[in-house]
Structure to design on (311 residues):
């Protein structure tokens, strides 16, 4: 006999799903069509800024390209010379400040612009090499020179008087070249005179500064009498050798940069030594004589007193 057991569960409530049309309608939000005015302004401003930035990039590239083309103008122009000097002087300001006063930098800027206009980048970098080597020689044993009273003023930082005195001959050659005096036949002569003038000034600076730092014995060039270091017209073996090497180095730079050729470089070295010897003879003959101090200053530009210019 089978027994059937019935278990009665509580009724399960039926589940009713709402009709799709009766679902809660969620309002749509369009990011780019908001009715908020301030939101639209910010969004449009952002769009404009990104567009302006995108347009500015090619503009900057074009400006840089145009500036580079201007700096590489052949033959050089006053505009290319001015722009090139601004760029170089800004980038090289730490080096310039180590060797020049502020007024000296202003004078050097004018010299650099004139040099670039006359002889292009090669002439400019020749003058830059002159400045670097001359400044390095001036800084040698500065404390010793100061103790002996033969150091340049302002820790060797040259003023405008030094720049003008050292570059007068070179500036004359540059002007003659720019205005085509003598035509093409004389252009090489002005270029040779330009390089030779800076070889002369560098040789004079280096021989003087190295002689004051390392010269064991200094002689008056006219009588070979032993005199103290720093005396006008005095020379030393150490300073003379250093001056010759400096002129050879700068003439080689001019040759490498295409300003002169090898035979002309030899002429520059010889001319620089003749000029320095002549300066020493004049200095020895007229030293300590009243009224002739300005001659020494104009011959040896780095000794020229800036106070005489009111600077």
């Amino acid at each position: 006999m089978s027994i059937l057991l019935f278990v009665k569960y509580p009724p399960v409530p039926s589940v009713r799903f709402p009709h799709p049309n009766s679902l809660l309608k969620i309002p749509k939000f369009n990011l780019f069509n908001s009715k908020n005015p301030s939101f639209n302004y910010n969004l449009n401003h952002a769009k404009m800024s990104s567009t302006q930035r995108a347009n500015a990039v090619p503009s900057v590239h074009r400006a840089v390209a145009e500036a580079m083309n201007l700096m590489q103008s052949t033959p050089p122009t006053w505009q290319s010379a001015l722009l090139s000097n601004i760029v170089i002087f800004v980038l090289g300001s730490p080096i310039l400040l180590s060797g020049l006063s502020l007024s000296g930098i202003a004078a050097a800027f004018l010299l650099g612009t004139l040099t670039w206009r006359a002889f292009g980048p090669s002439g400019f970098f020749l003058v830059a090499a002159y400045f670097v080597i001359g400044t390095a020689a001036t800084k040698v044993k500065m404390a010793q020179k100061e103790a002996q009273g033969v150091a340049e003023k302002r820790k060797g930082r040259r003023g405008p008087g030094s720049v003008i005195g050292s570059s007068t001959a070179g500036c004359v050659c540059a002007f003659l070249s720019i205005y085509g005096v003598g035509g093409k036949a004389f252009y090489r002569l002005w270029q040779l005179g330009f390089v030779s003038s800076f070889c002369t000034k560098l040789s004079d600076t280096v021989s003087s500064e190295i002689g004051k730092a390392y010269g064991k014995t200094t002689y008056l060039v006219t009588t070979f009498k032993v005199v103290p270091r720093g005396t006008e017209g005095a020379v030393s073996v150490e300073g003379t050798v250093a001056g010759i090497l400096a002129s050879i180095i700068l003439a080689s730079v001019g040759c490498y940069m295409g300003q002169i050729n090898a035979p002309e470089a030899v002429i520059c070295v010889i001319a620089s030594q003749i000029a320095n010897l002549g300066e020493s003879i004049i200095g020895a003959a007229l030293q300590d004589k009243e009224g002739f101090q300005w001659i020494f200053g104009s011959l040896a530009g780095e000794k020229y007193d800036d106070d005489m210019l009111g600077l």
Observations:
- The CA atoms of residues 13 and 255 lie 107 Å apart.
- The chain has ten helices and three strands.
